[in-house]
Specification:
Blueprint: E1 6-10, H1 14-26, E2 30-34, H2 37-46, E3 51-55, H3 63-70, E4 78-83, H4 88-96, E5 101-104, H5 109-135, H6 150-162, E6 169-172, H7 179-188, E7 197-201, H8 207-215, E8 216-217, E9 229-230, H9 232-235, E10 240-244, H10 251-263, E11 265-266, E12 275-276, E13 280-285, H11 289-294, H12 300-306, E14 309-312, H13 321-333, E15 341-342, H14 344-352, H15 358-372, E16 377-378, H16 385-388, H17 402-416, H18 421-428, H19 432-441
C-alpha cells in the first residue's frame, strides 16, 4: 500500500493498548486505540480503517460480538483477534466469522506488524476486486507510442523525466492526438505501474452521474442506488487517475475534485464520513483553459493544481514523418481482415491530407481501407472520399487558429453524417452537449452543411 495502514486497536488493558499504538505508530502506521467493543464500532462507523485488532474479552461488547456486527458492514476492515491461551476454540470461531487471523497474548510487536501488513494487503486486493467488478473499464493495456518525429521524441523525453515523480501532469492536444496514450505511458513508467490506471471522461456524463462514477455512492443515496458502489477514485488508490477532457467538467464537480486533490480525502455521494486515497493525477484537455478561466468556466485554483507539468502534443499535420509509420502499423493491427499492404500512391495521399482528426482519424481511415480493399494491396480509391476529394480540408497555414481548424473539422464530420449531431458526436468522440455548444459558439449554420 502506498499510504500508511490505518489501524484501530480495541483492548481494555490500557498499558498494552497504548504500547501497541505507540510501537505500530513507530513503524509508519496510523494507529488509534479504544477501550471496548462499543467504542470500536463507533470509530469504525466514523472512519474507514484498513485493519482492526480486537481483544477477545472486553467490557460492554466482546470482540467476537464486534466481529459479528462487522460482518454486516458493506465494506468491513480486516480483523485480527487477540486471544488468551485458553480461548483458542473461540478464535477458531472468529476465523469462521471472517477474521483474517488471530494471535495469542502476549504477542510480539514484530509478529503483529507482519500480520497487520498482510491483512491490509488482502483488504486492498478485496477492494480492487469489488471496484473492478463494479466498473469493469476493460481498457486495453498501453502498447507504446510509435513515432520518428523530433517533436514527439521531445514529448517522450518529458514523459521519462516526469513519470517517476508524483507530480500532477496536464496533457494538452487536439482531439485524436493520443492524450490517453501519453497518460498511460506516464503510468507505465512510474513507481505506481503495479497499481491501476483508471480513465474517466469528464464531459461524457451529466454532473450527478459523473460524481457518482468518480467518488462512488452509498446505498439509497439517490433513486436507483440499490447498493453501495466504490468510485473510480477508490479503484485508482495507489495508482493513476486519468481525467480526460477535464475542461468539460461542471463547476460544481471542479470544487469537489479540488478538495479531493488538496486533502487526499473525498465523500461518496450520500456519505457522511470521508475516505482517503493516494492517487497520481493526470489530466488532459483540448480546450484553452486560460480562456475558460477568464469566462469562469474553469477554476483558476484547480488549474494550478493540475498544471504542475504540461505535456503538449503536436497535431498529426505537424509530424508528417509519422503518417506512413502509423498507417503501416494500423494495417498490421487490422490483419484479422487480411494481410495487406499500402500502395505508394495511397501513402502519398495519406501524407498529403491535413488530418484534422489526427491519429484517431488516420486509424479509422486505414481500418476502413483494409476492410473495403478487394486484393492484398490498398489503393487510394479504398480511402475515405474526404481524403481524396476536392472538399477535403486543406493543410492549415501557420496563421490558422486552433478554433478555425476545429470549426472546419466539425463541419466536415457533420457533412459526412448529413447533419446528424448524435452520429457526429460519436465520430468526434465528444459528448453531444459539447458538440451542440461548439456548433453555437462557432456559428455553424445548416447552409454550411449542404
Amino acid at each position: 500500500m502506498t499510504h500508511p495502514i490505518r489501524i484501530l486497536i480495541a483492548d481494555d488493558e490500557r498499558n498494552l493498548r497504548e504500547l501497541i499504538v505507540r510501537e505500530l505508530g513507530r513503524r509508519g502506521h496510523e494507529v488509534e486505540g479504544v477501550a471496548d467493543g462499543v467504542a470500536a464500532l463507533e470509530r469504525i462507523r466514523e472512519t474507514p480503517f484498513d485493519v482492526v485488532v480486537l481483544d477477545m474479552r472486553m467490557p460492554h461488547k466482546e470482540g467476537i460480538d464486534v466481529l459479528r456486527e462487522l460482518a454486516t458492514f458493506p465494506e468491513a476492515p480486516q480483523v485480527i483477534m487477540l486471544t488468551g491461551f485458553q480461548e483458542v476454540s473461540t478464535a477458531v470461531e472468529a476465523m469462521k466469522l471472517g477474521a483474517y487471523d488471530y494471535l495469542t497474548k502476549p504477542t510480539k510487536i514484530e509478529e503483529l506488524d507482519v500480520v497487520v501488513r498482510k491483512a491490509a494487503e488482502k483488504g486492498q486486493l478485496v477492494r480492487d476486486n469489488v471496484a473492478l467488478r463494479a466498473h469493469a473499464p476493460g481498457a486495453a493495456p498501453f502498447g507504446g507510442l510509435l513515432t520518428q518525429s523530433a517533436r514527439m521524441h521531445e514529448v517522450l523525453r518529458i514523459i521519462d523525466r516526469v513519470a517517476p515523480t508524483d507530480s500532477a501532469v496536464l496533457v494538452l492536444g487536439e482531439s485524436g492526438t493520443g492524450k490517453e496514450l501519453v497518460a498511460r505511458a506516464i503510468h507505465e513508467r512510474s513507481t505506481r505501474t503495479a497499481r491501476a490506471f483508471v480513465p474517466i471522461h469528464c464531459g461524457a456524463l451529466p454532473r450527478e452521474v459523473f460524481e457518482s462514477e468518480l467518488f462512488g455512492h452509498e446505498k439509497g443515496a439517490f433513486t436507483g442506488a440499490v447498493g453501495t458502489k466504490p468510485g473510480l477514485v477508490e479503484l485508482a488508490d495507489g495508482g493513476t487517475l486519468f481525467l480526460d477532457e477535464i475542461g468539460e467538467m461542471e463547476p460544481d464537480s471542479q470544487v469537489k475534485l479540488l478538495r479531493a486533490i488538496e486533502t487526499g480525502t473525498f465523500f461518496r455521494v450520500g456519505a457522511t464520513r470521508p475516505r482517503r486515497v493516494d492517487v497520481r493525477l493526470v489530466a488532459a484537455t483540448n480546450r484553452d483553459l486560460a480562456e475558460a478561466m477568464k469566462t469562469g468556466e474553469f477554476r483558476q485554483d484547480l488549474y494550478y493544481r493540475i498544471n504542475t507539468i504540461t505535456v503538449s502534443l503536436p497535431p498529426l499535420r505537424e509530424r508528417r514523418d509519422d503518417v506512413a509509420l502509423l498507417a503501416r502499423h494500423f494495417v498490421e493491427t487490422n490483419a484479422k481482415y487480411g494481410l495487406k499492404r499500402l500502395a505508394a500512391a495511397t501513402l502519398a495521399a495519406l501524407e498529403t491530407y491535413a488530418w484534422p482528426g489526427n491519429v484517431r482519424e488516420l486509424l479509422h481511415a486505414v481500418e476502413r481501407a483494409v476492410i473495403l480493399s478487394k486484393g492484398d494491396e490498398i489503393f487510394p480509391t479504398d480511402l475515405p472520399p474526404e481524403i481524396l476529394g476536392s472538399n477535403a480540408p486543406s493543410v492549415p497555414s501557420a496563421s490558422d487558429s486552433l478554433e478555425a481548424m476545429e470549426r472546419q473539422h466539425i463541419i466536415a464530420v457533420l457533412k459526412q453524417v448529413n447533419g446528424h449531431r448524435g452520429k457526429a458526436a460519436a465520430l468526434l468522440a465528444i459528448d453531444p452537449k459539447t458538440l451542440y455548444r461548439k456548433i453555437n459558439s462557432y456559428g455553424i449554420v445548416p447552409a454550411e452543411l449542404r
